[in-house]
């Protein structure tokens, strides 16, 4: 059982408003505005659904993030894609992957019109991360994207980190070389697949909306960085089957033109859904610090 | 459907109103009372479906989040059973005012059912209360959340992803659905997906106290409090269908 830290955190001066909008579908979202005296021309944070979880987010993570970001001066909007949470399914027949991008674009249109916001930061966990990157690649209004446990591929070092500790134990070694060992079968299958298909055909095991191909993801990242957008990557211990050391992302994509625009945080002790208040608080602090850095950097660049 | 905030400014609640669909307007309303914590996350989709089906039957439906839960204002540590009765009152009055209704029915799931029963059982403006897999015994519920952990009274612990304060634990410990706070004026209907010992105890308790109620067991797999990495939802179709059917057959409505 986990003891909570700093659990009693409330934001008494914030205002929240439910908004219905959308041209191609009836979308529902909640706008959290900063206390009026601190409101500035900050980018607007837009939080996307994680899978089928509604806009409150896993363990209310999105509610906490929205209020903390607003407290630091960032207007924040969390909404449900068509067919998720409080938004009814879309009626225009668009495929899911395309519909998600339309929903994001219409959300930014709404916030542009209502708040006068011209710059946005997208944030999402799991499929929400992939969808954030897909939107950030093409929408010039997006100046930053926070990607939490996105689709990611393994590197040779991932395999070393994963299997080496098992080989250090004599008992485990003997288990490892037993005929029934599942690890051997997995490695054998992986090697066979790699020699047969080549590394570019590697696929992550889990289905997620959006991205799966390694080269396609590389192109998304490269295009996003080239147009000046910044990326925050957060990887949790809950994602260790795919990501198990801090440098993995940049080793996976060594040829990116602007790696300085990527900020990677590794949370090896944290679950995929940020189960404890401590996990949530750490993420929220890191993320809002990074958002302020974007704002500062932009100011420096402009001046 | 129409999403909005309602209630006191310092206790703002998030709600979604589903107006009657089609040609039928039964002039009857139903307030849906959510569970809390992980059970709330797991049941959100089921509640939306339940609200949609009831609105298609011609009912005015309001589903809402308790203060400190879901999209409502308040921190997760602010949730309290006692204060939730105020939220229940605000939700009932909101639906009655919006739809111009004399009385409403309540459907509550898990802890939401217990709060609905405690707060609505003797209200003259509540016609019927449906208790769906209700929490009967607070101590048993607490054990399902934190096992045999014995935290210090002031300590806040994590329960399946949500903070559980000492005040919450103290309130939960005192919860006993067998002892209703007043003689019921509302019709009571229990729907359970698994006929566990605690529901047998509840039946015996209410029968012993002369409390009239209906009881339906509609077997459905799944545990409301199950936690997985991907936030999978639990949508027991047959049970939802049975609850909806029980409403459309209700002569009063």
Report on this model:
The complex is a heterodimer of chains A (303) and B (253). Chain A has 303 residues and is an alpha/beta fold. Chain A folds into two domains: 15-153 and 212-302, Alpha/Beta hydrolase fold, catalytic domain (Rossmann fold, 3-Layer(aba) Sandwich); 157-197. Chain A has nine helices and eight strands. In chain A, helix 1 (61-71) packs across helix 9 (277-302) and helix 3 (127-138) crosses helix 7 (214-226). In chain A, 44% of the residues are buried. Mean pLDDT of chain A is 85; it is low at 1-9, 194-207 and 299-303. With 253 residues, chain B is of the alpha/beta class. Chain B has one domain: 3-Layer(aba) Sandwich (Rossmann fold). The mean pLDDT of chain B is 92.
Sequence-ordered SSE layout with sheet pairings:
The complex is a heterodimer of chains A (about 300) and B (about 250).
Chain A: E1 15-21, E2 27-33, E3 44-47, H1 61-71, E4 76-80, H2 96-115, E5 120-125, H3 127-138, E6 142-148, H4 156-167, H5 170-176, H6 182-197, H7 214-226, E7 230-236, H8 248-252, E8 262-267, H9 277-302
Parallel strand pairs in A: 3-4, 3-5, 5-6, 6-7, 7-8
Antiparallel strand pairs in A: 1-2, 2-4
Helix pairs in contact in A: 1-9, 3-7
Chain B: E1 2-6, E2 13-18, E3 29-33, H1 38-56, E4 60-64, H2 81-99, E5 104-109, H3 111-120, E6 126-132, H4 138-146, E7 157-159, E8 162-164, H5 166-173, E9 187-192, H6 197-208, E10 214-217, H7 237-248
Give me the CATH architecture of the largest domain in chain A, please.
3-Layer(aba) Sandwich
Termini Cα gap of chain B: 21 Å
CATH architecture of chain B: 3-Layer(aba) Sandwich
Note the beta-strand portion of chain B. Answer: 15-25%
- pLDDT averaged over residues of chain B: 92
Give the helices and strands of chain A as they follow along the chain: EEEHEHEHEHHHHEHEH
CATH superfamily of the largest domain in chain A, please?
A: Alpha/Beta hydrolase fold, catalytic domain
């Amino acid at each position: 059982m986990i003891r909570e830290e700093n659990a009693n955190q409330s934001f008494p001066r914030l205002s929240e408003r439910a908004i219905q909008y959308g041209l191609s579908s009836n979308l529902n979202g909640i706008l959290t505005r900063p206390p009026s005296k601190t409101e500035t021309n900050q980018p607007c944070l837009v939080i996307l659904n994680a899978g089928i979880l509604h806009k409150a987010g896993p363990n209310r993570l999105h509610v906490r993030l929205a209020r903390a970001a607003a407290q630091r001066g960032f207007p924040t909007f969390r909404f449900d894609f068509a067919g998720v949470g409080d938004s009814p399914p879309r009626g225009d027949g668009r495929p899911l992957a395309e519909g998600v991008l339309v929903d994001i674009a219409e959300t930014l249109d709404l916030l542009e019109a209502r708040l006068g916001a011209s710059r946005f930061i997208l944030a999402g966990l799991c499929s929400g991360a992939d969808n954030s990157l897909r939107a950030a690649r093409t929408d010039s209004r997006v100046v930053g994207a926070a990607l939490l446990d996105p689709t990611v591929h393994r590197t040779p070092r991932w395999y070393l980190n994963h299997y080496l500790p098992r080989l250090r134990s004599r008992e485990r070694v003997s288990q490892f070389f037993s005929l029934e060992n599942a690890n051997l079968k997995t490695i054998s299958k992986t090697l066979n697949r790699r020699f047969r298909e080549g590394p570019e055909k590697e696929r992550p095991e889990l289905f997620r909306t959006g991205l799966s191909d390694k080269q396609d993801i590389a192109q998304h990242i490269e295009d996003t960085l080239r147009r000046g957008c910044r990326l925050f990557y957060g990887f949790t211990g809950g994602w260790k089957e795919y990501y198990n050391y801090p440098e993995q992302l940049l080793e996976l994509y060594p040829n990116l033109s602007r790696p300085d625009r990527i900020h990677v945080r590794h949370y090896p002790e944290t679950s995929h859904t940020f189960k404890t208040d401590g996990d949530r608080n750490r993420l929220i602090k890191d993320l809002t610090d990074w958002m302020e850095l974007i704002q500062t950097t932009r100011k420096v660049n402009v001046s | 459907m129409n999403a909005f905030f309602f209630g006191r400014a310092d206790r703002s609640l998030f709600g979604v109103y589903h107006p009657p669909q089609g040609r039928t307007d039964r002039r009857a309303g139903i307030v849906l009372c959510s569970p809390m914590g992980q059970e709330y996350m797991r049941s959100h989709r089921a509640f939306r479906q339940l609200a949609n089906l009831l609105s298609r039957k011609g009912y005015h439906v309001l589903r809402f989040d308790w203060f400190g839960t879901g999209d409502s204002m308040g921190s997760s540590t602010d949730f309290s059973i006692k204060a939730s009765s105020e939220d229940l009152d605000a939700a009932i009055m909101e639906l009655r005012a919006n739809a111009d209704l004399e009385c409403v029915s309540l459907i509550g799931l898990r802890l939401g059912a217990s709060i609905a029963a405690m707060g609505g059982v003797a209200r003259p403006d509540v016609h019927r209360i449906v208790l769906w897999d209700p929490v009967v015994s607070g101590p048993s519920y607490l054990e399902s959340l934190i096992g045999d952990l014995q935290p210090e009274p002031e300590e806040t612990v994590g329960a399946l992803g949500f903070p559980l304060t000492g005040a919450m634990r103290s309130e939960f410990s005192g919860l006993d659905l067998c002892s209703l706070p007043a003689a019921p004026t509302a019709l009571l209907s229990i729907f359970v997906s698994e006929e566990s010992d605690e529901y047998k105890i509840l039946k015996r308790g209410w029968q012993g106290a002369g409390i009239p109620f209906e009881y339906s067991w509609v077997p459905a797999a799944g545990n409301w409090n199950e936690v997985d990495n991907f936030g999978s939802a639990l949508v027991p179709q047959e049970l939802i269908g049975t609850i909806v059917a029980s409403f459309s057959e209700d002569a009063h409505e």
